Amino acid sequence: MDDAEKNQKSLDELNAKGKLSGAEKGQKKALEKAIKTAKAKQNRVVASPEVVEKDGKQRTTGVSAKPIRLLRTEKTTLQNKVESIKSDKALINELLGGTRHINETKIIRALIRMLPEIPDRAIVETIRDTVKDDMFSR
Questions:
Q1: Rg (CA), the chain
Q2: What percentage of the chain exceeds 90 in pLDDT?
Q3: The pTM is what?
Q4: CB count, 10 Å around CB of 31?
Q5: In this structure, are residues 58 and 49 in contact, taking their beta carbons and an 8 Å threshold?
Q6: Could you give the percent of the chain with pLDDT greater than 70?
């Protein structure tokens, strides 16, 4: 029996009682709140990459943003990559039909999709190099 079931059982027992003492009333409120919170967590929708709406667009409503801070060099690298990709007009027109889809956000999302293909060791080594760069840049 999980916590939600235990809470519901306790709440049912309290509701079955006639008159409640002050402590029991407080316990009842706490149980109701815990049950409501548990139900809200169960009903919370987490967008998965596979979910696509009718019009073919993936909704980002309800997705929590992950703010990141980029160093000036990282930002420059990202901007340079955007410009580099935009300069290959033939590739863009063939695959995307235009350059409007080439921007920093889309590149970051594409890189995130590529993460499963990158070996863990390569990621950890890159993190190590980033940490070293941060230590020397201060």
A1: 26
A2: 25
A3: 0.49
A4: 20
A5: yes
A6: 81
Nearest to 71 by CA among 8, 12, 2, 133: 133
CA distances from 136 to 70, 113, 115, 129, 130 (A): 16, 31, 27, 11, 10
Tokens of 36: 């409501």
Half-sphere exposure of 34 (CA within 13 A, CB side): 16
Using DSSP's 3-state secondary structure scheme, residue 41 falls into helix
Helices (H), the chain: 3-16, 22-43, 72-87, 89-95, 104-114, 120-136
Nearest 10 degrees: CA dihedral of 112, 118, 119, 122? Answer: -90
Using the 8-state DSSP alphabet, how is residue 137 labeled? T
Give the whole-angstrom CA distance, residue 10 versus residue 4: 10
